Amino acid sequence: MLLRDARLLSSDVDRVGDLRVVDGRIGAVGDLTPRSDERCLGLDGRTLMPGLVDAHVHFSLSAETTIESVVNMSDAELALAESRNARKTLEAGVTGVRAMGAAGVDLHLKRAVERGDVPGPRMVANGRSITVTGGHGHHLGREIDGPVDARKAVREQVKRGADFIKFMTTGGVTTPGTDPDTVALTDDELDALVDETHRHGLHAATHVHGAEGAKAAALAGVDTIEHGTFLDEEAIELMLSEEVTLVPTLSAPYYIVRNVEWATPDTARKTEHIYERHIDSFARAVEAGVTIAGGTDAGTPFNDHGANAAEVTFMIEHGLSPRAAIEAMTETAARTVGLDDCGTLDEGAHADLLVIQGDPLEDSTRLNAPEAVLFGGELASGYLPTEE
Ligand SMILES: [Zn+2]
């Protein structure tokens, strides 16, 4: 298939040209001559760009107000909810995700998507997220106490097929009784978690709100910090020197703040307190040159699956250029989470593509509703122009 006369847009391409899809991958990009038997579609100047990659989603959560409604779900119920959320995500133009774990259903969903049994984006998944006893996300996570148990918890996830390991360095907003500013894991536990993760060749992602948590995690050698809500100068310096990528998840507090009357009092109180500081923290990290990978925390309260592209707009509003924001949520996110051959228009990359009416650099909300989403060269949602 040849997609013709498109404005080709990626982190390193911005030109008018053609793109050839061969066996689900990008075969060639440039000024191409149609082959005699080739299907040709004229895009008439529409933007053709890589599908978005969301570095932080929760398919197990469906934007419910409280975690309680999810805790009591059976694995069968979770599997159905997760497959619906995966389909909504793909249809919205997100063709790759890092799924932050819950009960462990994600790993089954990932394999089902790979087999083509259910529609969904390419996934990396972690099994259960690791937290201290009673810590953030303990309802669905693996609780640990001490460095020996920390290693065992990592090994358990690896045994189940985890692509990366996630743990909670600080408390969280949506878990009652935990404090976002307090460092929950000890240095010994952090060192054990990171060392065991890297021993298996995986990357270590950690949930962090407070600055002390960010410093401890960076010093322990984590690869990504999620949220990074209260970063101070020292935390930002450490993230730079230790080459830690920030996944800001600006969508998460945005939706809670805008729906505060429906949030639980505990969640509302914590979020109002942190929203402004979260934005400021992100802006300072961008200014300092910290690597940013786009992620939404989709599934958290009022933060629904399929609204992921709004994160690009939030990142632009609070400090990234439009080009940098799109790069953060395509190429950088893919590289950060280990989704190979995604997020670019390189030859050989998966033909996971968005057809966008208009210029997303001028108006990033154009990303919210792609005219067509191609996944492995096949139409996943929307429509393509008729054949030439
Ligand atoms: Zn999250």
UniProtKB/TrEMBL annotation:
What Gene3D superfamilies does the database record attribute to this sequence? Answer: Metal-dependent hydrolases, Urease, subunit C, domain 1
- Per UniProt, what is one GO molecular function of this protein? hydrolase activity, acting on carbon-nitrogen (but not peptide) bonds
CDD domains, sorted: Met_dep_hydrolase_A
Keyword check for ATP-binding: no
Q: Where do the TM regions start and end?
A: none
Q: Which InterPro entries match?
A: Amidohydro-rel, Metal-dep_hydrolase_composite, Metal_Hydrolase, Metallo-dep_Hydrolase, OTAase-like
What keywords are assigned to this protein? Hydrolase
Record domain Amidohydrolase-related: where? 47-369
Electron transport keyword on record: no
Specify the superkingdom. Answer: Archaea
Q: What name goes with this protein? A: Amidohydrolase family protein
